Amino acid sequence: MDLKALLKTARIPRRSPSWTMLVSLAAALLAWELVSRYAGLPAFILPSPGWVVVRFWRALTGGSLLLHTGVTLLEVLLGLLAGTASAVGLGYAVAKSRLFERLVAPYLVATQAIPIVAIAPLLVIWFGPGMFSKVLICALIVFFPVLVNTVVGVRAVPRSLRDLMVSLRARRGQILGKLEVPAALPILLGGLRIGATLSVIGAVVGELVGADRGLGFLINAARGQYDTALVFVAVFVLIALALTLYGLVSFMETKFLRWQETNLK
Amino acid sequence: MIDPILTVRDLTVTFPDDNGGLEALDGATFSVYPQEFVCLLGPSGSGKSTLLRILAGLLAPTSGTFTYIAGPPRIGMVFQQANLMPWRTVRENITLPLELEGVPALEADRRAEDLIDLVGLQGFEHTWPRDLSGGMAQRVAIARALVHDPDILLLDEPFGSLDALTRERMWAELSHVWQVRRKTVLMVTHSIGESLFLADRVLVMSQRPGRIKLDLAVDLPRPRADEMRYTAAFGKLARQLKDAIGFPTGIGSDSRSVLDTRY
Predict the structure, then answer these.
(1) Model pTM score
(2) Partner residue facing B83 (CB), from A164, A178, A259
(3) What is the distance between the alpha carbons of residues B96 and B105, in angstroms, rounded to a whole number?
């Protein structure tokens, strides 16, 4: 496949927040406020936006929102790190060796076929309700997309550039560092972008199944007390978390992939 | 008598396929002398690119030997496509061979600047490859092939993907670069005009499986200009090369271009 064409498809359009976004956001908030005020729903079904803000402030100052957010964030990051590291390592081996690919491919596909939600209880039983089981779930959910993108990225390294490196008598490590890593980076970062948001899902799933802290635990606990506003708070914090991670990877893309942008013309 | 920098003896390559293997090269034998500009001329499918890949260490021959006088050579290679790394600027592409050899960055940049001047790319040092025209990109590739002071330049139809006018301008520029740097050059081409404009000696290869059919010295005076291509001496040499290649076999063969001396 032509690397250039592949890279073009891997690029994401970069949008800046514009007035259209602000307008649609304001409209949604207004609609929410109107429904909660005039539909006659009790606050434990649909709290008003104002009440959610108040609840957020109370959880932040008086409650333990920061602790739960910190725990979830740590699980997400550790899982992302572990999942990415193992996926990149294994993906590189798969991309380089057809034999290795044939040996492990059935298992890799099988792991992807298992719905993570279904085995999360099992992992919590085996590894306890602490952070480790959540990190493991995050790592598992991150693993596959990053692996696939690593394989695609490494395989997309042009043959002609390999020839160039060999004709210059480059060593193995030089081919890795100066050719394979930079050539595979756009596709790899694309996988990381998907993995970052998936990792947040993994952590919440794990915490919902069984935990004593974290935003998923907070949702469970708040639901038990019909504190629906707190559920909303936790959900919004999770959204913010996922968007921040997504933005971080996008930032890395703009930083490392400057060469994909046209300066002239 | 000067010793050859490269000696090729009985090189044979057979690519495995379903019916007993495809013979691409059949006993190619020749020598290249220091500071010589040699063209390997032949129709498409004569195995000339295969031969170049072997000499660059990218492919192992089935049998035969090739020896560089000073052991493993430093090679500067230019491919049909510019083959630049899109994530490196013009200057960073040119310094790549030096980085691989561990030359300090300051020294590498200085040598790259010299070559940027030589190939006329001043002002484009920090341009990304995607913003270069085909001719400019190929000039970067030539600079990159020269920057580490290689023992031999291997050029694989370097201007094949350029339009006719750009190609002719590149001939003059390559000729100029060669006169300044005096490298040993082995260049693959299927164009009689190109080989006569550039080479000291032209080796004509036969149809597959490739062998050296003719070893023709080109004694045209340098520097060679455009008008030279309409002289009697040039026409005589072109005729000799054309006769050696023979007429294309089979309709639709893309060796047609061989018959056009101006191509």
Answers:
(1) 0.81
(2) A164
(3) 10
Closest Cα of chain B to A227: distance in Å? Answer: 52
| Whether B218 and B244 share a structural domain | yes
pLDDT at B203 over 90: yes
- Chain centre distance of CA A27: 28
Give the span between the Cα atoms of A149 and A170, in whole angstroms. Answer: 25
CA–CA distance, B79 with B43 (Å, rounded to integer): 18
Check A168 against B57: CB less than 8 A apart: no
Count the domains in chain A.
1
Whether B130 sits inside 8 A of A262 (CB atoms) is yes
Q: Does B96 touch chain A (CB under 8 A)?
A: yes
Strand partners, B15: B22
Q: How many domains does chain B have?
A: 2
Q: Is the pLDDT of residue A71 over 70?
A: yes
B128 touches chain A (CB under 8 A): yes
A264–B83 C-beta distance less than 8 A: no
Q: What is the CATH number of the domain that holds A121?
A: 1.10.3720.10
Do residue B142 and residue B37 come from a single domain? no
Q: Do A169 and B72 touch (CB under 8 A)?
A: yes
Q: Is B63 helix (H, G, I), strand (E, B) or coil?
A: strand
Contact B100 A168 (CB under 8 A): yes
CB contact under 8 A, A168 and B99: no
Q: Which residue has the tokens 């996988």?
A: A191
- What digits encode the pLDDT tens for the residues B91-131? 999 999 999 999 999 999 999 999 999 888 999 999 999 99
Phi, psi of B202 (to 5 degrees): -120, 125
How many other C-beta atoms can be found within 10 angstroms of the C-beta atom of residue A103?
12
Domain boundary among B105, B133, B150: B150
Given an 8 Å threshold on Cβ–Cβ distance, is A259 in contact with B75? no
Q: Cα-atom radius of gyration of chain B, to the nearest Å? A: 18
Which of B87, B132, B144 is best to mutate for the A interface (most A CBs within 10 A)?
B87
Q: What is the CATH number of the domain that holds B199?
A: 3.40.50.300
Instruction: Show the domain range for A68.
Output: 47-257
Closest A-chain CA to B72 = A169
ipTM for this model? 0.87
